[in-house]
Every structure is written in structure tokens, then in C-alpha cells.
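INFO  loader      accepted 1 record
INFO  loader      residues=367
INFO  predictor   begin
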Amino acid sequence: MRRTVAFVVNDEPGGALARRAESLADRLRPDSSIIVLCRGRRKVLAILRFIVNLADARPEIVYVFDMGYSGVLAGVFYKLVSRRPLIIETGDVISALARSLGRTAVGLWLTERLESLAFAVADRIVVRSTTFQDVLKERGVENVVVIPDGVDTQIFTPRQAGCLRADLGLNDALVVGVVGTCRWSPTLNWCYGMELVEAMRWLIGEPVKGLIVGDGDGLPLLKKRARELGVADRLVFVGRVPYEELPEYINAMDVCLSTQTNDLVGHVRTTGKLPLYLACGRFVLATRVGEAARVLPEGMLVPCQGVIDPDYPRRLAERIRELLHQRELLAEGMRLRQIAREMFDYDLLARQLKALLVEVVRTKHGE
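INFO  predictor   done
INFO  writer      dumping C-alpha cells
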């Protein structure tokens, strides 16, 4: 009998989590009836909408994507009423992330309570890195399974992007790029992409250009910093691009950056962008932190000391300069595509999730 599973997604339709949910749902639907419910912008109202939809669908399992309060509270309520299994997936230690983002004392307290509730009530916690699993087991959370960030390796493939590079004025340069949401952290005075802006100051006069793909409240501050450093003409900010165009933009980069803070927040993350870089066969420079340090070859890792290492951009620039003068090394990026297939392909992840769903149902029924 086909089981009904509700994917409750703490994200808007079209967002990164929604795409992950749909990618997994498409691969599971031959064997299961999958309902995907996305939150939308109104987070509080979404709780009620989720509960109504769950009561109507009566799924055998509820799977919540991300530890946002809308989906978690709705999932917990449905579990308590229906006595059916609840699985909660998260890619972050949300209490640590809240501190990093400078949440208020009240906001931090509420985040910690939400995290504790999820760990206590969920039948399984799914995390997206082995480091995260280790951290939770050390805290006594035993029901933890790893299903990492994913990529469709049939869509994200190596391809020529010469026309796009020409349109963006990137020809005849080594292009170093990042893809991601530039969310500003007032506590750290930092956001995603700042490492590239800061590194460019050490590359003035070299044929190197930066490409930043993504939006967020930190974007104006990145542009301001670029002007202060006198490197604004060496950086191209394209904002957010449609998902279907993302492979071409990644392929327009010679080197992709994957930077995480050297703290608990960074240690547990893979980041959804790293598998995309690997699948496109790009050369990656990443901080020697978390999952990136586990899956990437040593030659692609850059040491980072502490949460914010003021010397990291200089070390990053040194590595970029090495690649500029030894461009043959860039070909090593093609070997990463095999890692994408073996560890992050959605076909593989869907099989892992299918096995988890079967195991949870059997455990619930005492089989």
C-alpha cells in the first residue's frame, strides 16, 4: 500500500529548501504519495494552514524541512494528536546560528526552546553533515540520521559559459565566484561574499575578477566595502538569478569559494552550494572546516583560525594567485564531479530517505 507522506517546508515556493523537497518528492512518488506544503511569507499564519492541511491529508509520516517554528510547531501538534511519526530535518544548530546573527535575548531563548522541543519530540532528526550528527550524539540526541545537501547531476554539469563571461565583462580574467544569500551578521560584521571582496585588495593589478551571485541585506554593504578598497571595478554583482540559469553562472567561474566560520555554526554545515560546485566540475577553495574539509582534497582547503580570521582573505588571495600562474591545476575540479555523484546526487539521497521512511514506520508499528 502506498504510504502518504507530508513534506512540511519552512520556505517559500521556489526557495532552496522547497527545491530540495520537490527534488526528493519527485523521486519518491512512484512508491509513496508525497504532499509538499510550503510555508510562504506569513510565518505565524502558516502554522494554522499547515495544521489544517495535515488534518485534511492525514499523512502517515510528517517530514519537516528546516527547524523553523511554523513547520516544527505544526508537525509537533499533528504528532501529538495523530500519534504518527514526525521527522525533522535541519542543516544548522539554530541556537548557535541565532547567536551568530545577533538575535535578542528573547529571540535566542525562543530559538533554544524550539530546538529542544524538536529534539525531544521528533522520532528522527535528519542532519545534512556527519559533523552535525557527531555534535548531536555528544549532546545525547541518538535518533540522528545524515542525508546531506543534494544536487541533480543531470542539470548541474560542466558546460561552456563563454558568452555569459563576455556579457559580464569577465573574459581574459581568472574568475573567482560565490553563490549564496548575503545575509548580514551585525555580531560578526560579516556576510557571505565578504571574503572575496577582502581578498581582491591583495590581487590589485592581477587579471582576476570576482563574481557574486545572490542577494540579501548584506549586498549593499559588500558593494560599499568594495568601493572603500578600490576594487569595485574588479567585482561583478549579478544579484539573484533564476535557478535554471544557475549552472551557467557557476560554469562562468574558474574558482568557486565555499567559506564557513571556524565555529560550531560552520562546522556542522555542508552548505547547499558546495554540491552544485562539485557537480559543475569547478575548482573549489574552501575553509578547512566541517564537511568541506572531509570531502575536498587537501589542495583545495585554506586554513581559517577562529570565527573571523582577519588574515584569511590574504591567504585566500595567495591561493588564487597560485592558480592564476598554474591554471592547469583548475582541471582538478573535474574530479569533484565524481564526489557529487557518489555523495550528493538526489537519486542517492532519495533512496536513503525511502529507507528511513520504511524504518520509521516499521519501528512505529513494532515490526
